[in-house]
Design a protein that fits this description.
Number of helices: 16
Order of helices and strands: HHEHHEHHEHEEHEHEHEHEHEHHHH
Number of strands: 10
Strand content: 5-15%
Radius of gyration: 22 Å
Strand order of the largest sheet: 1-2-3-4-5
Largest sheet: 5 strands, parallel
Shape: globular
Bound molecules: 2-acetamido-2-deoxy-beta-D-glucopyranose
């Protein structure tokens, strides 16, 4: 049985490479676009479609925090810093708040790291409250809508719920003062209290230069069928493995650790990026938080992402045709992963690979320095532009108040 599978896999990989390397070479190597579908939206130019006013906050909300810990520039939530820098010199920025469509408050609320580099969001609610208090007293714009024309970058695990444990995050809910704002966040899961309708889901930050330095020839045969590196169990926090990733990762390991189609391990090799370029499928299972840079890496390295995360809302899902690029496997179907993946025809695999080869897909996943057209910064702006014009009902009558400034955990009300 095992041997049979292995022969099948070898044959499949051989056929795939034969199609790519044979007569169809020129045809199949080319990248493919899905014309007339959302794929085209990625190339929109946001300039001229929106104007953003950047509040000038005291440096204690941003630059000073970064000075204390420069590691904030490289962790997976660094987008909050790079987006600020990008907006300061972007042509969509306006210095005249009266003509702004959107208001942006530069608060680096994930830049509080443990010695191991993990962001702690415990101070974030007080810091955010403090910033909102400041802009609402010094400028008239917050009070006009109570934040409905303001956007915030909140890339933490569970966005503006500001806790890294899901149960606690759900208990907290979105910070009450941010209820009307547009939240730009990496967290995305349907029907979850930490995802507001109208939020913009973005990819986590993954260092572009580091990935580019590991690019190998696109002609390299894809000789690995399924690839994954990462945790299957979180022994420190969840020894039984029943809760971590809702058991999906444990199930991948238990079912496929001895399956030759699956190159899976907890060990992170030096050739990790190269290996992804030698693989047909890269597993992107849920972790503690739904997002990790794994999806970004799969897209950059042309490895078909296999998304195992029920109800996930993927980055820029209104612009990127994820269903066409990737493979979605329900968490409960993990035990059949081998059958599901080996049943996908070579034609379908090749089409997904051609779509992944479209540079626009890769560009949309990255936050390069300096910014480039079509990158994740531009996709965020495109997302904000698509939400315009604001509904007239968001503008409050003079004196009208909707937000409750004393709602939420008492600890959050302490000054920052
Ligand atoms: C906005 O409303 C708050 C009360 O909710 C008030 O304290 C503040 O001064 C107002 N801001 C401006 C600029 O009038
Ligand atoms: C605001 O929230 C606090 C705390 O939950 C609550 O006691 C108070 O009644 C609320 N105020 C209004 C006007 O709803």
């Amino acid at each position: 049985m095992r041997f049979g599978k292995w022969v099948f896999c070898a044959l499949l990989l051989f056929l795939l490479n034969l199609v790519v390397g044979g007569e169809d070479f020129e045809q199949s190597r080319r990248s493919e676009r899905i014309s007339g579908s959302a794929g085209d939206v990625l190339e929109d130019d946001p300039v001229g479609r929106l104007k953003v006013f950047v509040y000038d906050l005291p440096s204690k909300y941003n630059r000073k925090i970064l000075q204390k810990d420069p590691r904030c520039l490289t962790h997976m939530f660094a987008a909050e810093i790079f987006m600020h820098r990008f907006l300061l010199s972007s042509p969509v920025r306006t210095l005249n708040p009266e003509e702004a469509d959107w208001f942006y408050t530069p608060v680096y609320s994930t830049c509080d790291l443990t010695p191991n580099g993990l962001p702690l969001p415990f101070k974030s609610p007080r810091m955010m409250r403090s910033a909102i208090q400041l802009i609402s007293t010094n400028w008239p714009f917050w009070n006009k809508t109570e934040g409905a024309d303001h956007f915030f970058i909140v890339p933490h695990d569970f966005g503006a719920c500001f806790h890294y444990q899901e149960e606690k995050a759900i208990e907290r809910g979105i910070l009450p003062l941010l209820k009307r704002a547009t939240l730009v966040q990496t967290f995305g899961q349907r029907n979850h209290v930490c995802l507001n309708k109208g939020s913009i889901t973005i990819p986590p930050y993954a260092p572009p230069q580091k990935m580019q330095a590991h690019l190998i020839s696109p002609d390299t045969p894809r000789s690995i069928f399924v690839y994954f590196r990462g945790l299957f169990y979180d022994v420190n926090n969840d020894p039984e493995g029943g809760y971590y990733a809702r058991g999906a990762r444990a199930s991948v390991w238990e079912n496929f650790k001895n399956n030759p189609l699956f190159d899976i391990s907890t060990e992170h090799p030096a050739t990790y990026y190269e290996d992804m370029q030698r693989a047909v499928f890269c597993l992107c299972p849920l972790g503690w938080a739904p997002w990790s840079p794994r999806l970004v890496e799969a897209v950059i390295f042309g490895c078909i992402p296999v998304i195992i995360a029920d109800d996930i809302v993927l980055p820029f899902a209104d612009a990127i045709p994820w269903e066409e690029i990737g493979v979605f496997v329900a968490e409960e179907d993990v035990p059949s992963l081998d059958t599901i993946l080996t049943s996908i025809s070579p034609e379908v695999i090749l089409r997904k690979q051609r779509l992944l080869a479209n540079p626009a897909m890769k560009q949309a996943m990255l936050f390069p320095q300096p910014a480039q057209s079509g990158d994740a910064f531009h996709q965020i702006l495109n997302g904000l532009a698509r939400k315009l014009p604001h509904d007239k009902r968001v503008y409050l009558k003079p004196g009208q108040k909707i937000l409750n400034w004393t709602a939420g955990p008492v600890g959050d009300l302490k000054p920052w």
